[in-house]
Automatic annotation (TrEMBL):
Keywords noted in UniProt: ATP-binding, Hydrolase, Metalloprotease, Nucleotide-binding, Protease
SUPFAM superfamilies: P-loop containing nucleoside triphosphate hydrolases (SSF52540)
Protein name: Uncharacterized AAA domain-containing protein ycf46
Domain of life where this protein originates: Bacteria
Gene Ontology MF terms: ATP binding; ATP hydrolysis activity; metallopeptidase activity
GO aspect biological process, one term: proteolysis
Amino acid sequence: MVAAHVIDDLSDRILAGYPLLVTRTYEERRWEQEFRRLAADFGWSCVSWSMTGGVVADSESSGSEAGAERVDPVAFLAQIQNDYPGQHLFLLKDFHLCFDDPYVIRKLRDLVPVLPGQQKTLILLGTVDTIPKEISKDVSIIDLPLPDEDDLHEILEAVLDDPKSGIATSIQQADRETLVRSVLGLTADEARKAWVKSLRGADGLTDELFASLISEKRKVVQGASLLEFVALDEGIDDVGGLDGLKEWIANRSEAFSTDAKNRHIGNPKGVLLAGVQGCGKSLTARAIARMLKFPLIRMDLGDLLESGRGVSEQNLRDVLSTAETIAPAVLWIEEIDKAFAGFVGNESQDPTVSRIVGRFLTWLQEHTHPVFVVATANRIESLPPELLRRGRFDDLFFVDLPTYEERLAIFRIHLQKRGWNPEQFDLDSHSNATEGYSGAEIETLVNSAIIDSYAEKRILSDEDLQDSIERTVPLSITMEDEIFQLREWARTRCRPATLDHRVIRVMEEEARRGETPAAEAEEVLKWKQLAEYGQIPAAIIEFLRHHERVTWDVLLNEFADYTEVSGRYGLVFRSDPKVVIWTRIGRELVDQLIDLIVRKRLYLHPCGEDLYQQASTPKLPAVAKFPDQRVQNAVWLPTELQLAPYIGGAGIYGRVARIKMGAPSS
């Protein structure tokens, strides 16, 4: 189901008499189905045309019969004006390829003033890049969106139900949401093929399976010189320590869920990781993407800001547009301090660069797409103060040299990755001996010890590790002053990425003390709590879970204490607006209900009029089922709300609209 606001916009333009719509999309088949459905909702006919296939009409169209002119674009444009009756949509596929023909342009200009009076609209469907100047003022350009989460859930259900897909794995609802998020940014066909490829023959859902799905998005960034698609080889378990940061990321990941979206919880913006070199900031960026199950794209901000590469604001717009297209995604800006070096506080700075920096900072604060930005920095004095302002990032973390426990974990990780059993080594001694060493330095010395033992045809020993430790001079010695200054700066500005273990113990005690109240709170009706906090859509869903099936009068009566349920608006079926669902509802509540129904969170079911015997129903004649033909006068179709779809006509019952009613009689 395409987003309601897109369908509404297209409907408004067509019914307002827009003669020529240019719709940009790679998904010709998907959108042709939507336009044909839209025409049926209007009671119009729909005709499609292509250079190779000629005309394909629905059963109610009555244009010319087969002939050579069906393929010729100029002749077909003439037929549109003369041979087809009013109330027609015409889908012209890849018609922009005909723009080189001056006769085509002239004929389009001739049609523009004629079509509105005939209730006809031309829809150019394809990957249109440029519009001829001659018709640029006569067209409306609409970028048709890729499938959203609701669309992809519907497609995934079809894939899982199709026996030809060969998918035998049982998939829980939470995993289905993750599968959907993994392919956002792909077309419907691309998503379908990616799921079948990854799930066919799979024994279960693993991190590797999700990483395989995410890799399908690689082609979206191909050709973007300032963006790089990064493989998700490392997971959060490959990061030793940083428990405070890990916990924070785990909490933020919940905000990307469908439930959080339904509760209008905003997407997390991102995190800035400042700290000592070699302490895992870049590794953490990769692990965050794996943890969120998002693709990771690295942005070369330094190259973008270098005037020698022909800096332009268009470059930045293209980069950010690509990131938003592939969303949900993690946008990784490595060593952002180097990118801004030389541009901060420089009065002779190129004004174009100043605008780019300003535009980028504005995007950081205002973007609404699920693009989680992870920026890393070593030298914080190079960062502009406005970058550190709250609102650009959700939080700033300081990544310090690893503690004893973290060094212990880092030794284990790197020995295991290289096939050695950590339990065979005295890691306690090695962790004590490496105080002041970074994670990168520990990795290097482990690798060096393994190479030395291999070269001498020996088994790796504690002595090899100790020798490698003694040969390594850590940054904490060579850059002691810089690290001290960095710590002092971060002390009052950043959260520590490593939790103090005393704090952990306090948190555990608080959690234990909170077990009983939490259990008692579950007994309270959840929908009432949500409604009291203004989370009306989520409360409606919970109310339905509690009652299974609800009539309109019951719903409005129960929610009267929490929101404005009465008003001058009604709900009708989009297929026939004279078939009324309910009346006298408040505007905000109507819009919330439409959103829930269109996004398939709630479902309408026809029901008997007897369920409303004690209710004040719409003062209209009642019908037992949806009319086969459009009605002349308004009627009321009794319905109830459920969380399960209606098998007998989900398409009609899932397409609803708002109407404004007259003032109530005194």
